[in-house]
Amino acid sequence: MPPSYTDDQIVYAVRDGLIIPAQLDRTAQGMIDLVNKTRAAMSIDNYRFDVDAHDEVAHQAAIESIVMLKNDDAILPLNAGPVANPSATPQKIAVIGEFARTPRYQGGGSSHITPTKMTSFLDTLAERGIKADFAPGFTLDLEPADPALESEAVETAKNADVVLMFLGLPEAAESEGFDRDALDMPAKQITLLEQVAAANKNVVVVLSNGSVVSVAPWAENAKGILESWLLGQSGGPALADVIFGQVSPSGKLAQSIPLDINDDPSMTNWPGEEGHVDYGEGVFVGYRYYDTYGKAVDYPFGYGLSYATFEITGVAVAKAGANTATVNATVTNTSDVDAAETVQVYVAPGKADVARPKHELKGFTKVFLKSGESKTVTIDLDERAFAYWSEKYNDWHVEAGEYAIEVGVSSRDIADTVAVALDGDGKTQPLTEWSTYGEWEADPFGAKIVAAVAAAGEAGELPKLPDNAMMRMFLNSMPINSLPTLLGEGGKKIAQFMVDEYAKLAK
Fold first, then answer.
1. Residues of the chain with pLDDT under 70
2. How far apart are the first and last CA of the chain?
3. In angstroms, what CA-CA distances link 270 with 9, 212, 278, 418, 493?
4. What is the pLDDT of residues 51-94, one digit of tens each?
5. Among residues 396, 386, 389, which one has the least CA distance to residue 423?
6. CA distance to 147, 175, 360, 386, per residue, from 398 (Å)
7. Distance of alpha carbon 186 from alpha carbon 206, whole angstroms
8. Is the CB of residue 338 less than 8 Å from the CB of residue 245?
9. What is the reported pTM?
10. Spacing of C-alpha 78 from chain mean position
């Protein structure tokens, strides 16, 4: 490792005589590691990787990333007619939105890469022989709406059985180097959605966005909503597979969708002032905040619909070690559709010495089940699953006590809760005259000494501490060297007795 030093809050590293920020140094090291990993393959003359195989990996990743938020009247999957079901009459489909033709498949700025191939949704329809009428509806920028494009889109929608509207954020709306100041999509897209929905009530919105967008303001205009994020080079085939029912959607939200940007806990600190931003929300980020403080959200963390239905039963938790546990649950596909469900395990701490979220996701597994099939899944929770970072100990810390293990399919859809009692890691800090009476009571050695003080008080060997609720509140938050303030010379004797006894026990 190169030498490093700090300047205020920036850590610098010295590499080959150059002084650079340590974050850039780590990034450079990561790139070097990546080059070294590929060196063996690149040393082979005329080496070629399998483009199609890699594209299929991208295809499968995209399929599993799509989150179905809404599916009223079972509007999805669509019927593509003879291509998917020879006995079915095909629906007349309208595809509206430039994203269907020009997919936003990656983020902005330095995340740009050159794909080996690029397949849009319209490309996929053509390849699969699925007929659809297309209208771009809008341009992929932040310019005002084009009335001619809007009119064409509405006319296209009128003649369809169902409308697929591809909406989202153009690259100009989100990228590295600047912050978004709203969660809304461009107004021209929402206006177009309203116009199309007035002409045709059977609308499915397909979203393309790198970060969350508000859904509540326009959701009433759509019977179905697919959050597809930025799906990469094979997003078109993945969307077609889900939309036409070759696969059931199985993605889950990796972040909550709030009702309003001002509901986010970071808004009290953002965008900062005088050149700095305080991360004042601490650990209460995302669902950890919304769930702890009972804040209403549009869609919770971990949410995602399926064409299938599932049931979770038989939740059991077994203590595996002093501070570890194993969770088992049985998942059953209760529908006639083969599909996958993601079982999520949240840990809810009991009373803690620090502020902790209501619960935190600590394990999950996706399980594929055929119609009517059941499987038992096992998720192991290690010590870190129960720990928090302690400033006092400058380390991860597991407190002794009871923890609730919640098993469900989102942070707000919990199938069952089971408790487990842990021993704790036994970490303690040396007690001194500056430790509070409450800290002495909570410490294994200190608790014995507090008991000895009480016994000595009953025996008349030490002053007796007042025993009432108000005095206890004072004592618990007071360093023991302040006992003389309450008890005079007697308080000084008690404090000295405690310090002396601790020195004997802690040897």
1. 1-28, 81-88, 507
2. 39
3. 19, 17, 8, 38, 52
4. 999 999 999 999 999 999 999 999 999 997 544 455 667 899 99
5. 386
6. 61, 39, 15, 6
7. 15
8. no
9. 0.86
10. 30
